[in-house]
Amino acid sequence: MINKNLVVLIILIFALFFSQENLLCANEKLSDSTTSAEISIQNNSEEHTLPELFMVLPFVVLLLMIATGPLFYHHFWEKYYPLISILLGLITVLYYLFFLHDTHSLLHTASEYLSFIALLSSLFVASGGILIKVDKKATPWLNAGILLFGSVIANIIGTTGASMLLIRPFIKINKDRIKPYHIIFFIFLVSNIGGCLTPIGDPPLFLGYLRGVRFFLVITEVWYIWLPTILVVTAIFIIIDSRNKSTAEQDVTYSGKIEFKGMRNVFYLVVIIVSVFIDPAVMSWVPKLNPLPIGIREIIMFSMVVIAYKTADEYVLKSNEFNFEPIKEVAYLFVGIFATMIPALQLISHEANVLGEQLTPGIFYWATGLLSAFLDNAPTYLNFLSAAMGKFGMDVNLPSEVLKFERLHPIYISAISVAAVFFGAMTYIGNGPNFMVKSISERSGIKMPSFFGYVIKYSFPILIPIFTIVWLVFYFGKV
Amino acid sequence: MKSLDEILQNNTNGIYYGSRVLLPFHFTALKIVIENDIITDFSIREKGAYVNEYSDYTEIYFMDYPNFEANISKYENIKMIIVEKGKDIFDFANHRKIAIRPEGNHILSIKELDENTIFIE
Fold first, then answer.
1. Which of A104, A218, A453, B3 gives a 20 to 30 Å CA spacing to A423?
2. B31 in contact with chain A, both atoms CB, cutoff 8 A
3. CB-based contacts of A137: which residues, under 8 Å, 6+ apart?
4. How confident is the model at residue A19 (pLDDT cuts 50, 70, 90)?
């Protein structure tokens, strides 16, 4: 079942790209005779017809199924989620191909999806070949230290890399006292909020960087929001963890040693991180591989997947119980999410452009944030950046204007960046690594809360008050 | 009937057919993790895992995995917390963590879970 789906998926993506030229011709011929909504939007330098509102339905259905499947029809969902995700995605793809004749949006989304999955899968496989053994007694302070360390290194090796590297040692240290909240705070800090300081940290910031936002702008504009947020979330964790009285047997002695295996894979991680910058938008000498849907960067990343897996230490893979299921789950679900969210994002982008004058940094913060909790935060970030720049008559596609915008109105970039990254922690689907961490935890025997359980028991009571304070202190009343 | 220790020392295998696993010792299952499924309820015949004890072996039906060989990847195991029959189930020292995995040709390896593999009780 899964292999057939994979073949369909690959054929679909490549067929889209190789039919680009023919379809673009059709696009021109048919653009006058469209019967769909008559409003056009400006997005990525191409004119597109807006989709009908009902085309948001596949996205809503997919989100609802992701939320309810594991809860109410677990085994049906487990068996058929790849097919459901692809079929719902196909509805949107076919609508864009045959009703809107808009291949640009599809190609752009497919390209973003492949970049997304290349980065996630390469970091997942490379870090899966690294084994960290920490022989220390678990305490709230040691745990807090790991969470803070993870939050910092998420800015160097990405939230995915940091999550994959640290989740197993984190579970292992706490094996005698672990509860779901340990994993959830790990998702909050290491898999999301931590990675808000650099473009490597989280994909949306990287998209901004590719558009011309300076590499260090996020640090200078966000560190004073990042630091207190991280500290407050960690403090809440320490309070909760201090009440956890489960302990190991008293006669256990700890050597205090930290062992590290899989140095070769650290090198692969470095290659992946460096390859992030091998992009024609960053380095002019890097060739574009049109009409291929991927670039040099993605080729390097996918090569790293193969090399890292083939050359990994078997002992480490066995110890980590390495398997491709978590990344496969992300790949299948996000292909549906990426495809079905195209209409939602275009409609939102259009509304944001229409309402531009009335939109303040505070509104951008909440709008970007709430959508990033349920949509992929990378395109959400870009659409709201585009809308914020449109408010001042600037074009997100011109790096010189992006540079001008960040100098004149840094608060907008700050609000959109912070919201896109922070709110990714609100749900399991808010960010790629969330799912992976959940899956690894469940395979380790930890019963994780359902989609709604996560949101109601943890995100709402812990994150929403903190994010509200962030809004009140940094964005409320600003224009 | 061999003890679990004898089975582990002698590398004795179990066998499997489809979703049915036969293990050559008697035990009470407390927790089984297969893929993302954490099974702790062994009373339902229709889903999860259903355990039967016979004079020479214990069998488990994995109701949701008609061919679980296809579901277990190269480096993964089915992880179980069990207590050998006759041992005090309320003494945590008797809770043993074992890993079983299909090796092909209906052969099922049985190993004590090594210290590196994370399995939370």
1. A104
2. yes
3. A248, A252, A254
4. very low
**Chain A neighbors of B33, CB-CB under 8 A:** 442-445
In a domain, A46, yes or no: no
- Which residues in chain B have Cβ-Cβ distances shorter than 8 Å to A323? 73-76
Look up the ipTM and state it: 0.83
What length does chain B have? 121
Other CB atoms closer than 10 Å to residue A285's CB: what's the count? 6
Residue A42 within any structural domain of the chain: no
* C-alpha to C-alpha distance for A360 and A39, rounded to whole angstroms: 24
Q: Per residue in A156-184, pLDDT tens? A: 888 988 998 899 899 989 988 899 999 99
Average pLDDT of the residues in A276-292: 80
Is B11 an 8 Å CB contact of chain A? no
Q: What is the DSSP letter of B114?
A: P
CA torsion through residues B34, B37, B38, B42, sign: negative
Task: Sketch the domain layout of chain B as residue ranges.
Answer: 4-112
The pair of three-digit structure tokens given for residue A467, joined into one six-digit string:
């994010």
Give the closest residue to A159 by CA, choosing from A431, A443, A462. A431
CA B76-B77-B82 angle, 5° bins: 155
Q: How far apart are CA A279 and CA A213, in angstroms?
A: 15
Q: Quick check: A171 and B118 CB within 8 A?
A: yes
Has residue A11 been placed in a domain?
no
What pTM, to 2 d.p., does this model score?
0.81
